[in-house]
């Protein structure tokens, strides 16, 4: 299975746009660094939604477009890892700025999961890990999704970020509902067999 270029082009374009917007909108070096960290995280939202729902969309609405999404999850996942590598660099840049507040280390687990999935997204790793490969990726997608859901839900309580949280959280909950609906469909179909 070969990698598709389109997700990587999106990742590069979205990350570059996020960095440029931060440069334009930031008042000083600290604010620009903060905006870089925030905006580059947002660049990954469309990819998280697509990756999280790809197989569910195909199960519920089989067709050419949903089959393409399902077939190209590896390219989409690696593009997501690219956006989050840029995001990690932006976070480290923000932490290095004089006057930046201490940052919690909660994201370390999320990055470990992202990179484990990225580095194992090849036929050799799939063969070597066997069914553990599927377990890693199934659990990893849930962990990354949970990070996004908790992160954006917490924005609802911050006046400056509330509108963003109120926009993204319903999208994430809709993605979760799609996964549950597809799971129930598969379970019912499995029970009927």
Describe it.
It contains nine helices and no strands. The protein is mainly α and 193 residues long. Helix content is 82%, strand content 0%. The two termini are 30 Å apart. The radius of gyration is 18 Å and the shape is globular. The protein has one domain: Four Helix Bundle (Hemerythrin (Met), subunit A) (Up-down Bundle), CATH 1.20.120.
Summarize the structure in short.
With 193 residues, this protein is mainly alpha-helical.
What brief labels describe this structure?
mainly alpha; Four Helix Bundle (Hemerythrin (Met), subunit A); 82% helix; globular; 193 residues; single chain
How is this fold's topology laid out?
Blueprint: H1 6-25, H2 29-42, H3 45-60, H4 64-71, H5 73-96, H6 107-119, H7 123-129, H8 131-155, H9 162-192
Number of strands: 0
Tell me the fraction of residues in β-strands, as a range.
under 5%
Count of DSSP H/I helices: 9
State the share of residues found in helices, binned by percent: over 70%
**What is the helix/strand order?**
HHHHHHHHH
Question: Average pLDDT value?
Answer: 91
From the 3D coordinates, which CATH architecture would you assign? Up-down Bundle
- In the predicted model, the low-confidence regions spanning at least 5 consecutive residues are none
Euclidean distance between termini CA atoms:
30 Å
User: What is the level 1 CATH name?
Assistant: Mainly Alpha
What does the main sheet amount to? none
CATH topology descriptor: Four Helix Bundle (Hemerythrin (Met), subunit A)
Number of spatially distinct domains:
1
Given the C-alpha coordinates, what overall shape results?
globular
Which structural category fits the helices and strands?
mainly alpha
Computed Rg: 18 Å
